[in-house]
Amino acid sequence: MSSPVPPRPRGEALPIAGGLLSAGALHVLASILIVVIGSAATKSGEGAYAILFFWAGIGLAQWVYLLPAWLLARVLGFRAFGKGLLIAGAVVTLLSALCWGSLGIGSLFG
To answer: What is this structure's pTM?
Structure first.
C-alpha cells in the first residue's frame, strides 16, 4: 500500500503571471465601469470623460480594487497570485510616478 500523495500547496496553484494578467483585466474592467457610470450620470454623455481623471491618477486609484483582490487571494491561499497583483500594482504606480515626475521636471526646465 502506497502512501497518499501530499496535496499541492494552494498558493502555487495560480502563478504570478495569473496575478499580473488579472490586474490588467481589473484595470480594463474598472475603466469600462467608470465610463458607464460617468455616461449614466449625465444626460449628454459627457460624464464618460471621467475616465481621464481615473487614468491620470491610476497610480493611486488602482489600489481601491487591487488591495481587496490581494486580500481575497491571500485569504483563499493563492499567495503567488496575490504577489502577481502586488507586482502589477507596484509597476503601474512607479510608471505613473515616473510619468508625472518627468512632466514636472520638464515644466521646470522646459
So the answer is: 0.79
